[in-house]
């Protein structure tokens, strides 16, 4: 949990300095993300939305990989520099690549769970978990996904991070009912609402949800009540629609870090000195990874055409040849093209 604020601070400021194009923080929701990740098994399938970087940190994705994706450099093995920052993915860690369109992962998760149900090697061993915010629950894909999961079956945890805001729309203007948990029974799903700022409560809820999902070969809905302390993204100024004092009050009154810290200190398992040492170590590691990532080149330019078709169709072959011709004509002589192509590995000469 302590690692996430360190990453968020460096990468958010990197966007403000123009070094990356976009970023979304996890401020205020760390307990929901890390607590749920700890309750899963490493082979469980994860479909994230935008703020699930903590799942990858928990599973050992590594700071270099996180930075590589955000910078879109040559070490970005997941998206090869072709995705926006924070759209992580990892085949090895069973983390499905994040998509920008809202809620698309919900019906996809129903399909993943159905596949697990049908796979004799994974049936009864693994589940899928699908993260989304309460704003995504206003999309049609939410209802389609829950309907599919309830009928088709398969071990699946729908994990809703209810952080109070769908970008600028407060939850009071999103629905008139009792949150998202009230919708679960209508689809025949076992459902629980949990304090999303209590890491241990989230862990216990997801642990039980996982047991029920696997043993019953069915979907379970978890709603974690939290508060989005940060802005929606680097494209948002939340103080245009909420009072700054409201945010400051949440930081003091219901901070997930403070709550876990107080619990650990009460048990004699943690001290202020321990935390200072860990924070200093993590800050140093994050900054080292940041400095490494910003110096690396972008992936090879021909990645622009790869990984969609098994064999390039005629129209992409034409486009690739046209780019090659233009680079041969202008790439070394025209300064804007020359400086831009030098940002790529092999300077774009591998086309």
Structural write-up:
This protein has helices at 3-16, 30-38, 53-58, 63-71, 105-118, 140-152, 199-216, 244-253, 256-266, 272-295, 314-330, 335-341, and strands spanning 45-47, 95-96, 128-133, 156-162, 165-166, 169-170, 190-195, 219-225. With 351 residues, it is of the alpha/beta class. The protein is globular. The model has no long low-confidence stretch (mean pLDDT 96).
Straight-line N-to-C gap:
43 Å
Order of helices and strands: HHEHHEHEHEEEEHEHHHHH
Helix coverage percent of residues? 40-55%
- The dominant shape is globular
Beta-strand portion reads: 5-15%
Across the major sheet, the strand order is 2-1-3-4-8-7
Secondary structure tally: strands: 8
The computed structural class is alpha/beta
Largest sheet, described in full? 6 strands, parallel
Q: On the 0-100 scale, what is the average pLDDT? A: 96
Multimeric state of these chains?
Answer: single chain
Low-confidence stretches: none
Radius of gyration: 22 Å
Number of helices: 12
